[in-house]
Design a protein that fits this description.
- By secondary structure, the protein is an alpha/beta fold.
- It is 35% helix and 22% strand.
- The protein has a seven-stranded mixed sheet.
- The radius of gyration is 24 Å and the shape is elongated.
- The chain has twelve helices and 22 strands.
- α5 crosses α9.
- Bound molecules: MU-OXO-diiron.
- MU-OXO-diiron binds next to α2.
Length: 399
Amino acid sequence: MTIKLTDKVSWIGKIDWALDNFHGEQLSTDNGSSYNAYLIRDGKNIIIDTVYAPFTREFLDNLFSQIKPEEIDIIISLHGEPDHSGALPELIKQCRDAEIYCTANGVKSLQGYYDAGDWKFNIVKSGDSIKLDSQKIEFIEANMLHWPDTMMAYLDGDKVLFSSDVFGQHLAASRLFDNSADKAILDYESMKYYANIISPFAKKVASKIKEIKEIQDKINIICPAHGVIWKEYKDEIIEKYSKWSDKYSENQITIVYDSMYGSTAMMAEAIADGIIDINSDITVKIINSSSTDSSDIVTEIFKSSGVIVGSPTINKGMLNSIAALLEELKGLKFSGKHGAGFGSYGWAPMAHKKINESLEKAGFEIIGKGLKAYWKPDNDELSECKEFGKEFINSIMEQ
Ligand code: FEO
């Protein structure tokens, strides 16, 4: 499938409707995704990125139904991750004379994945450009957004920003443009993508968004590496990235727990009651971590100003689903959020303390010393849970 975006630019990627996991099994992709690749024909013939390797044949057949291999002058690799470079080895085999434009780190990642000894690399940095017949392509390095090799490209005549993974979403949409997608799903998938993939690099995002804002009125469309192409909502997604990269939170508290026999679940509900008693306007969500997709939990935590995490004590620690979530949060580096731990125990009350330690390491501001309940919480202990919820929300509201 090919979709014309401007007079000179066509989308030549692959929509993957069936994709349900990404980065191995780490990230859920409930709405599929796309691998966006582009063809620019303006004096020179230029390809930007390719597709994931399983779709190589389909990608090449589609491409070469429109242009002969020997007519391709340049291949731009914005980012070497295999979901975008997977078809590159076969493409280069057929386009022997094409030069590959990428960053210095791009050479490293492509050489790391492929037998690229005879590839014609042309290393570019911010400010470098390629002159076409009617316009030029300028390169904008975007180191660590989200890999060291990442860069963007800006086509100045057609006013197209090719943004690599930034502004992406895992979303399959047949007509590609943002206004053809279900907006609620688009909004959710954009945030989920940011929270799970981009958020560790928030400082880099903030400074890159400042740069993009300087040319924002000269951008007509944004072409990310995944999902819809931003046109009607391009200013909105730029503004969202600006907010998301600056200690983002909404009026929400999320309580995430796992439970063996229901005691920690009882505590979670009592804590929620306490929060709502103090602030009935706040959204409180209670999530069982063992039965909820972890990428969706991460998205809910990203939205929250406070996160309360619970597990019963097992073997002086916590249940697996909570341990895995806390390990993930450590890497995601959310900032400006509050946290607290809780959990039931039989003889060694440890989980609530360890949860607090992990949340602190993950950058959360810890409120209190954590809360424990003996075996199955009785009415007094449930009252303590309620009080714990009240103190938690009061501490946040006082700040
Ligand atoms: Fe979509 Fe970082 O590759």
